[in-house]
């Protein structure tokens, strides 16, 4: 029974340590006023994602965004990818059966007889579907001046009927940051 108590105490201590680390990060988030959105890795589409993130974060009115790295309290860094591709599915099914019977007699005799027969059954079905898809993903982190990660998220989207995938990802990142900032405010009170 003593071993069980030690295991429970160790698990409880581990949870408390995790909780404390998360709470410390959230509290640091409250101290951030000015953010520099760094260049994202991932090529040309990542540069577009950076612009969308700046726009989305600006519309949230939670932080001041700056283009001067030295003025920032924290830096948003990470990577993003925006892919447009065609997904191709091809399938073919078929069932076929053939039977033929033939019989023939000499036509010069009085009972000239010929018998022919045949059965054929067949069904074939094939499909070829090409679907244009658009997927976007970004993994970003908010880093303080000391280089410690104080917040991070990974978001992905396949877009929507009236919304590009990359725009959706930028908005999801902003929404998650706002939610966590609000959680941090509640911890303070």
Task: Characterize the structure shown.
By secondary structure, this protein is of the alpha/beta class. It has 3 helices and 5 strands; from the N terminus they run αβαββββα. A 5-stranded mixed β-sheet has the order 2-1-3-4-5. α2 links the parallel β1 and β2. α2 crosses α3. It is elongated, with a radius of gyration of 33 Å. The mean pLDDT is 82.
Structural class: alpha/beta
Strand order of the largest sheet: 2-1-3-4-5
The protein's oligomeric status is single chain
Q: How many β-strand runs? A: 5
Order of helices and strands: HEHEEEEH
In the predicted model, the low-confidence regions spanning at least 5 consecutive residues are none
Chain-averaged pLDDT: 82
* Main beta sheet: 5 strands, mixed
Helical run tally: 3
Q: Which percent range describes the beta-strand content?
A: 35-45%
Q: Separation of termini?
A: 39 Å
Query: How helical, in percent, are the residues?
Result: 25-40%
Global outline: elongated
How large is the radius of gyration? 33 Å
Topology:
Layout: H1 2-30, E1 34-37, H2 44-60, E2 64-66, E3 74-104, E4 114-144, E5 149-157, H3 165-188
Parallel strand pairs: 1-2, 1-3
Antiparallel strand pairs: 3-4, 4-5
Helix pairs in contact: 1-3, 2-3
Provide a short characterization of the protein structure.
It contains three helices and five strands; from the N terminus they run αβαββββα. It is α/β, with parallel strands linked by helices.
Task: Please tag this protein with its features.
189 residues, alpha/beta, 5 strands
């Amino acid at each position: 029974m003593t071993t069980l108590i030690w295991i429970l105490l160790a698990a409880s201590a581990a949870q408390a340590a995790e909780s404390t680390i998360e709470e410390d990060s959230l509290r640091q988030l409250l101290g951030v006023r000015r953010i520099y959105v760094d260049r994202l890795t991932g090529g040309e589409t990542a540069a577009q994602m950076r612009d969308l993130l700046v726009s989305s974060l600006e519309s949230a009115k939670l932080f001041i965004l700056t283009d001067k790295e030295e003025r920032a309290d924290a830096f948003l860094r990470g990577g993003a990818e925006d892919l447009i591709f065609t997904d191709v599915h091809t399938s073919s099914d078929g069932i076929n059966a053939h039977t033929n019977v033939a019989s023939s007699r000499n036509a010069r005799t009085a009972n000239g007889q010929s018998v022919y027969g045949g059965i054929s059954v067949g069904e074939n079905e094939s499909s070829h579907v090409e679907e244009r898809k658009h997927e976007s993903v970004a993994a970003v982190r908010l880093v303080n001046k000391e280089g410690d990660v104080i917040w991070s998220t990974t978001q992905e989207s396949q877009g929507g009927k009236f919304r590009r995938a990359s725009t959706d990802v930028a908005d999801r990142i902003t929404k998650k940051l706002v939610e966590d900032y609000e959680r941090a405010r509640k911890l303070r009170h």
